[in-house]
Design goal:
alpha+beta; five-stranded mixed sheet; Dna Ligase, domain 1; single chain; about 425 residues
């Protein structure tokens, strides 16, 4: 049967919902919804009722697009005050064949979770490697121990922990909207899952995700998140500068930035203009070159602050810096990255049908991360029943336009 999954990403700017189908190892977008967010600031929910209203609007939109109701979803969590912990676990292999099974993989992961503090919530566990033992001696270290013969199995894994209060507030508002949260995923881990390459999996690098009012800077070492930081500066400062200089409201300033903005003045036109009305309804003519100077100054500031934060987060040599967020769709962004980061600075172009905009990177990566987890556990799972899938397959789907919480959800008690 085709497997269909839903992911939800709540940002300060936008609530995004994605429904994807996995069939024969390939992901296909069935529908996506993007609704302006309310009640969230710098990753913190400030008004549950306002946010709930927007989430319900996004759910209604996605339901209408696929002609069935979503009931379950993976929920992304921002790495606000996140802590990363390297842990180890070790369990005996108890079956008669002494062969490692998928259940043993789950057992050894659970055995590594003893040191989670009561005020923290486990959002992500990333296996680094597994070790098989025979008669007390280490035999082999590998990525997937399934079907190996041994008497004990060890694991080395990285835990990502977020304060329980943050996680509960996110789960609570999604469940109030009638959606069951079957798994949590750290947003920065989802970003990596979407953009990663084999080369990145072998090196140490960084992701910089520029949001509306915050920028997430994360370090990945050989594909494993080891540290992150949230900077309280985002693309909204660009809107504020445009609004101030051209005396427009913030909504108009944002529209100007998205429809006419160029990230680097060297590639802007000195003769092309954009006409709009200011707050007094006076006609204003905006020169593209002058606008690009405004954008470039603030964007460079965000990137330089992020660059300095990398030095705080790691002493390792950075081999790549991947910059993400809706701002990277702006023309000329790659030249700004080259000016600040040199050749290691890159952007990522998402190329899935229906989600070609950078703002969908996190929500797409969340589903890929989820599929990777269930594959490691050897499970078959779909968030839609066979009847739902049948109704969806035979309906005209439409691609969109643009105690512990963890103990209750999917991946902790997955073997039950």
């Amino acid at each position: 049967m085709k497997k269909i999954y839903t992911s939800i990403d709540i940002g300060s700017d936008t609530v995004r919902i994605l429904v994807s189908e996995y069939f024969e190892g390939k992901q296909r977008t069935l529908a996506v919804s993007s609704v302006r967010s309310k009640g969230v600031k710098s990753g913190v929910i400030t008004d549950e009722n306002a946010l709930l209203e927007r989430i319900k609007l996004a759910i209604e939109d996605i339901n209408s697009r696929i002609n069935i109701n979503i009931k379950k979803a993976v929920l992304t969590i921002p790495p606000l005050d996140a802590e990363y912990s390297l842990v180890h676990g070790n369990v005996p292999i108890v079956n008669d064949e002494k062969m490692v099974t998928k259940k043993d993989v789950i057992r050894v992961q659970n055995a590594s979770l003893n040191d989670v503090l009561p005020n923290m919530e486990l959002v992500s566990i990333t296996p680094i490697d597994f070790t098989i033992y025979e008669n007390g001696s280490e035999i082999e270290t590998l990525k997937d121990p399934t079907n190996k013969i041994c008497d004990r199995l060890g694991i080395r894994a990285m835990l990502a922990l977020v304060p329980k209060s943050h996680v509960i507030s996110y789960v609570k508002v999604i469940e109030a909207a009638g959606i069951e949260v079957v798994d949590l995923a750290l947003s920065t881990v989802c970003d990596y899952e979407e953009v990663k390459t084999d080369e990145m999996d072998e090196k140490c690098g960084a992701l910089i995700n520029i949001g509306k009012d915050m920028t997430v800077v994360s370090i990945f070492n050989k594909g494993v998140a080891t540290n992150s930081s949230i900077l309280k500066i985002g693309s909204r400062v660009i809107d504020e500068d445009i609004s101030y200089i051209y005396y427009t409201n913030k909504k108009t300033a944002r529209k100007i930035k998205e429809n006419f903005g160029i990230a680097n003045p060297r590639y802007a036109s000195k003769s092309e203009t954009y006409e709009t009305r200011d707050v007094n309804s006076k006609l204003v003519s905006i020169n593209q070159y002058e606008l690009s100077q405004v954008i470039n100054k603030r964007l460079s500031q965000i990137l330089n602050v992020s660059k300095n934060e990398l030095k705080v987060l790691t002493n390792k040599q950075i081999s790549y810096i991947m910059v993400l967020g809706g701002i990277i769709d702006m023309p000329g962004i790659n030249f700004v990255l080259e000016d600040i980061f040199g050749k290691v600075g890159k952007t990522y172009s998402i190329n899935s049908l229906g989600i070609r905009k950078a703002r969908f990177i996190t929500v797409s990566g969340a589903i890929k991360h989820f599929v990777k987890k269930i594959k490691l556990r050897g499970k078959e799972y779909s968030m839609f029943s066979s009847d739902d899938v049948d109704n969806l397959v035979h309906s005209k789907t439409r691609i969109g336009r643009s105690d512990s919480v963890f103990g209750r959800i999917f991946n902790y008690f997955f073997d039950n």
